[in-house]
Amino acid sequence: MSKNHLKEFGIVVLVFILNVTILGFLLPVDQRPYARIMTAEIKRDYPMYHLLRSGEFDGIKPEESSYPMETMLALNILMRNQMNIDLALSSLSATAGTDGQVTIENEAMIKSKLLEFENQYVSKVRFISIIFLVVVVVLSSSIIFQIIHVFERKKRNAQ
Q1: The domain containing residue 107 runs over which residues?
Q2: pLDDT of residue 33
Q3: Is the pLDDT of residue 1 over 70?
């Protein structure tokens, strides 16, 4: 490899490591790409989701919603667990019977709704998250490479 190719490869690797670190670990869990994309998908399919986000869930009556109460409870549990379905499933069994809204009777229906969300969203959201990360790495690598190229050109012109 020539010196320029090594420099380009090094920039891409550095930008990839920085993006994975920032997007994967330094951002709050609900601001990471996976959670944001999952939230956008659910908002699109369930317009009443904004009431859950605003904390008005307790004021929603089942007859006012166009969705069954189990769907709203499943969305609420999913939201409280940073859109992570595995965490939502484990917290569901921990809160069944102790939470006023999640009873032992409707736990199975909520669990099936969470599994339905998993089948409907998880693979698509993961794919979109990976594409997002690749696009961010390519764009930021290109920008950084162009900035370095401009500085090198100015340096050569000055000599």
Answers
A1: 34-131
A2: 81
A3: no
